[in-house]
Amino acid sequence: MAMPNLEGKTAIVTGAGAGINLCFARLLLSKRVNVVIADIALRPEAKEVVDAYSSGTPRAVFQETDVRIWDQLNRMFEVCEKEFGAVDIVCPGAGVYEPLFSNFWIPPGTRPSADSPSGNRYTQLDINIIHPVRTTQLAICHFLKHNKSGSIVHISSIAAQSPGIMCPLYVASKYAISGFVKSLAQLETPLDPSIPKIRVTAVAPGVVRTPLWLENPEKLKWVEENKVAWIEPEEVADRMLELVVKEEYVGGTVLEVGKGHSRKVATWNDPGPSGPGMTVSNRGDAREEVWDKLATQGWGQVPQP
Predict the structure, then answer these.
(1) Contact between residue 162 and residue 273 where contact means Cβ atoms under 8 Å apart
(2) Which of 48, 117, 265, 292 has the greatest CB tally within 10 Å of its CB?
(3) How far apart are CA 289 and CA 19, in angstroms?
(4) At what angle do helices 168-183 and 131-145 cross, to 10 degrees?
(5) DSSP 3-state assignment of 55?
(6) 74 is in which domain, residue-wise?
(7) Cis status of the peptide bond prior to 273, with omega within 30 of 0
(8) pLDDT tens for residues 47-92?
(9) Could you tell me the CA-to-CA distances from 110 to 116, 216, 299 in Å, in that order?
(10) Based on the structure, what is the number of domains in the chain?
(11) pTM surpassing 0.85?
């Protein structure tokens, strides 16, 4: 089920306008894989990639996509088929890290949350759980339709093994992704030989130097530069590629990625993450912020109009 020869294949990568997913898209292009980059917008560095691969082989195509909207997820597969034919690799990588606009400690209806107290949705969970689950369904439908094998690579996190009170929605979302991936392990070995083999895997990185950290002051203050072993996004992208091309990473693999090291996360009795790049330096301060919020009179009460 491994794909050692990637030349001429096609991938869809959500969230590839920046960060880890951009690095993965760039790496795939370097292996002569066509890529549909699906994101709300492109950062300048991502636009450079799209422009550089706008013609010839391989090509990169940008499809504006809000991953919360299922019609737009459908559309990225339609665009992929129109531009390149059938897809081979799908990465539902778009995600957010306990943003202020959808944060457990900033309840719906209180500023600066954008979640409505009557909306029945947490935006963070729509992006981090619902979008990768739905994209996986669509990818499976696509592989079956074209009667071809495929690979789906998710992005989990060490948060799924190392929970923290400061980011419970994010932790819950990554627990969900790791469990979801492990639950789909048998897709690579279908009982019916007429069903194509589908490999579903995930990386679980530690503290990665991406805009999710660097451009969010409320998160960046948890980190002291000289006390954190940042993982570069290119290292995570390398491990993502290995999940696609190597025989040893079978379906259901969750591959923890630290700075200069990686390991498979066991389903039972896992020892948990350790080594460089696996924690922030000011974790205690981050926890104190939670208690400070809860000590504020009227926490969580929605202001009346």
Answers:
(1) yes
(2) 265
(3) 27
(4) 20
(5) coil
(6) 10-294
(7) no
(8) 999 999 999 999 999 999 999 999 999 999 999 999 999 999 999 9
(9) 9, 19, 9
(10) 1
(11) yes
